[in-house]
Specification:
With about 130 residues, the chain is of the alpha/beta class. The chain has 3 helices and 7 strands; from the N terminus they run H-E-E-E-E-H-E-H-E-E. The strands form 2 sheets. The chain has a 5-stranded mixed β-sheet. Strands 1-7 form a two-stranded parallel ribbon. Helix 2 packs parallel to helix 3. The longest helix has 18 residues. It is elongated, with a radius of gyration of 23 Å.
Amino acid sequence: MPQVIIVSLIDIFAILLIFVIVTTTFKVPTPEQPAVTIKLPESKTAVAADKPTKMTVISVAKTDNGESVFLDEKEVSLDELTAQLKALTSATPRPSFAMKADETISFGFVIKLLDALHAGGVQGSLSAFTKTQK
């Protein structure tokens, strides 16, 4: 009766596993590939805004923990966001803010975020990132 030698198969799988671990490159966030992946909604009427000298970007994305807010790629809670925005608005006369939000974020969370922005002292217009509709 023919037999399959399992020990040699285990050796091959171990070598393949070591090869995959050693050759895997780890993703480092860059401006082209940020740490947070966001699927932007489309807009027919959106126009490109003038770029100010320093723009603070508020990102909203779905993560493993649910819906999360990022202030310049640093994850913060809504309370922390309010406190940091108060500090930014008091330190800078007219700070510029832009928001990137995943299109799958719930409307209720967007309202909570807008309340946090208002409590943090953000007034006037808020730029939004969108992708152009094809």
